[in-house]
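tl;dr need the bound structure. longer version: we got a ligand (calcium ion) that a collaborator sent over and nobodys looked at where it sits. i said id run it. heres the input, straight from their email, havent touched it
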Amino acid sequence: MKIFIFFIFTCLLSNPCLSQFAPQVGLQGSSAIAKDSNIILSWASNCIIHRGWIDIADTTLGKTSQGDSLSALGMADANIVSLGDGGEAILYFENPITNGNGFDFAIFENGFRNPIDSNEAFLELATVAVSNDGINYYSFNAVCNQDTLSQIPGAGVYLDARKINNLAGKYITYYGTPFDLDELGMILALDINNIHYIKIKDVVGSLNKQFCTRDINNHIINEPYPTPYPTGGFDLDAVAVIHHKYPTGVEQTYQSTNIQLYPNPVNDFLYIVDFAPFTQYRLFTSTGQLLKKELIAKCIETHTLKSGLYWIELESKQGNKQVFRFVKQ
Ligand SMILES: [Ca+2]
Ligand SMILES: [Ca+2]
Ligand SMILES: [Ca+2]
């Protein structure tokens, strides 16, 4: 009997049609990340767009044109770049994203809620993959349990976030869909603590098997299609970093324009000019290991450092920080 109950329970858990994922923004259990959440450390600052078609089934219409790569940079602001059918955005992070506790980054789109059902929203979806080197990408296991009885049209029909997991675009404007690198921890070829690239690829929501996108369960993802406008497809607003490798945080703290560090590359001494209001510094290796923490002086001894890349973080009495990189010869 126990075995039977276990069998039933296992079937319930493994049946994708019965899975319930986190609900839309504002509902209990939602995993949405607000754009002004204090867990966000920084925002994407480098993006390349590979436009997709206005309609993949009629390429004479050309490609989408709304926004450009700049629209995807900085804090979420509802200024978007439209990827088009099957279009891609590739974001590069010089300071790599790492696998911290919980979610590690979040992707912002411009969906909007159904005015008469708070569980539903007009959503356009995208698959998400990450890479160490910009060549080998590994995808999050996307799930969309929306039925495929009839095509979700390009307007007027809403999706329920509880049927969607690991697809960007699950949440409405100003709320990011979060991703946890821990879920990719079993992939030996991927270092989840050194993610330099995120690839966001529009889901072609067509039910036509020639063009469709399938989820990890080989289920066709039924989302708005066609969207035959210059604004067609996934609308990327921003990408927030929640965990990253080096102790930057510059984006949310004081930035001085007067500070100069020289020479760089450095030999025996690193000179710091006009360092006020900073009073102390912390020196890190390229992998984030703290080497020393001291009061700032005009001249810092570096002759004992091995050759390589280092990070120096200046901090004021108020806790404001600024980070610089230098190379020891
Ligand atoms: Ca994580
Ligand atoms: Ca789409
Ligand atoms: Ca934006």
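gonna send this back to them w/ a short note. Confidence is low (pLDDT under 50) at residues 1-18, 249-254.
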